[in-house]
Design a protein that fits this description.
Elements: E1 3-7, H1 11-22, E2 26-30, H2 39-42, H3 49-63, E3 68-71, H4 82-86, E4 92-95, E5 101-102, E6 116-118, H5 119-128, E7 145-149, H6 152-170, H7 179-185, H8 187-192, E8 206-209, H9 228-249, E9 252-254, E10 257-265, E11 268-280, E12 283-286, E13 292-295, E14 298-302, E15 305-306, E16 315-316, E17 319-320, E18 322-324, E19 329-330, E20 336-338, H10 341-344, H11 349-363, H12 372-388, H13 395-400
Parallel strand pairs: 1-2, 1-4, 2-3, 4-20, 6-14, 7-8, 7-14, 8-9
Antiparallel strand pairs: 5-15, 10-11, 11-12, 11-13, 16-17, 18-19
Helix pairs in contact: 1-3, 1-11, 5-6
Length: 402
């Protein structure tokens, strides 16, 4: 019998499970959260409700399969050591645990200021602060916000800051104010229906600081072997996507701009020192004497997420030490493979699903039967894990509990 352990049950994990169960292979899915939705739940801002529900449905359908054992509320490296699971004798182990740790800002001193935030807790706050039961950290968005990063996640952060700045000024003037409706319609159209104008709100707004130019911002994918005509077309599409989003949410973009220092007054961060970059032969080159201060009141780092370190997992700096990106093979670990955000670093649903399918295709033939005694020991240990989290083995009953 073949039994595979999948750590993380969201997009990439569930994609791998679907392939395995279609082949009649048993799967044990261990997830750190109560439900296996990963960053679909709190990596996406709350206006993505339709997409979120669709993904939930897909994951639920896959993980409720008879060949799947689900283990919630169990964190590898804390509740169960990697050494233990590695020595249990699985047919294979897949790491589909995503990227939950914000990439450290290159100027570490910025973290001591209370008007600086990282993307992951920032989006979590936005998704939940309106709930009566919310008791998490409070975030005070002030005008003249600066977001450092690039890509779709950074744009979502800019949208949040703009929507919140408008909310602060108009919520008391609009009956049944709806921030999600404002996101769907865009700020100008939403305000127009109530006789309001953004220019009258006296908002300086948000600036997205990106170290490269907009054509290099990963808003659309460009295949490595793409012909020149396609590359140029995709680059123009990136600029158009960003321009259309700016028209709806009215934030600014400082491209080819890179933070190099901080500006502060006592305990308050009031700006970042930046330089302008040139792109020469695909490489960034700072422009001489281009240093300046970008003043702001709220600062958010959206420069990417990384997998959390786990004792026993080889690391290459701040990322897992993967010797082959396609198969996700971990260095010096037999029958252990990574997939999805844990190795791609792209943090989007499509990239995670593609990664999981690629890893699955390249590793399926490496999955072999294990001894019956080993299977029984795995089954007993899995039941212990489930018992600790009070999971009764019925996926949908568990989901229904609050």
């Amino acid at each position: 019998m073949k039994v595979v352990l999948i750590i993380g049950g969201a997009v990439s994990g569930s994609t791998a499970v679907k392939k395995l169960t279609d082949e009649g292979i048993r799967c044990v899915v261990v997830d750190q959260n109560r439900m296996p939705y990963g960053k679909i739940e709190d990596g996406l801002p709350r206006w993505h409700e339709k997409q979120r529900i669709n993904e939930y449905f897909k994951i639920d359908d896959i993980l409720s399969h008879d060949l799947v054992e689900f283990v919630p509320l169990t964190r590898i490296g804390q509740d169960v050591s990697f050494e233990e699971i590695y020595n249990m004798g699985w047919s294979c182990i897949y790491f589909a645990n995503g990227a939950w740790k914000d990439r450290s800002f290159p100027i570490s001193d910025i973290e001591k200021f209370d008007n600086f935030y990282y993307q992951n807790p920032f989006v979590y706050w936005f998704n939940h602060y309106h709930e009566s039961s919310y008791n998490g950290p409070e975030i005070a968005i002030q005008d003249n916000a600066i977001v450092i990063g690039g890509g779709l996640a950074s744009i979502d952060v800019c949208k949040i800051t703009q929507l919140e700045l408008v909310r602060q000024r108009v919520e008391s003037k609009i009956d049944n104010f709806d921030i999600i409706e404002m996101e769907h319609k865009g700020i100008p159209k939403y305000l127009e229906q109530y006789g309001l104008n953004y220019q009258d709100l006296n908002i300086k707004g948000t600036t997205l600081v990106y170290r490269r130019n907009i054509e290099n911002m990963p808003l659309t994918t460009i295949p490595e072997d793409a012909p020149e005509a396609m590359i140029e077309k995709r680059k123009m599409a990136r600029r158009k996507i960003l321009s259309n989003t700016q028209d709806k949410f009215l934030f600014n973009v400082a491209e080819c701009t890179q933070p190099v220092g901080l500006s502060f007054d006592g305990e308050k961060l009031n700006g970042i020192e930046v330089i302008e970059n040139e792109i020469i032969d695909g490489k960034l080159k700072p422009k001489e004497n281009s240093n300046k201060i970008l003043h702001g009141n709220t600062f958010i780092s959206s420069i990417g997420s990384l997998p959390e370190p786990i004792e026993g997992i080889p690391m290459d700096g701040s990322t897992y030490n993967i010797v082959d990106q396609d198969s996700g093979k971990f260095e010096d670990l037999d029958k252990v493979h990574g997939m999805g955000n844990a190795i791609t670093g792209k943090g989007n649903i499509k990239a995670s699903r593609v990664s999981a399918k690629t890893v699955g295709d390249l590793t399926i033939e490496l999955i072999h039967d294990i001894d019956e005694d080993v299977v029984k020991k795995i089954e007993a240990r899995v039941q212990e894990w489930q018992s600790k989290s009070s999971y009764n083995g019925n996926y949908f009953e568990w989901k229904a509990k609050k």
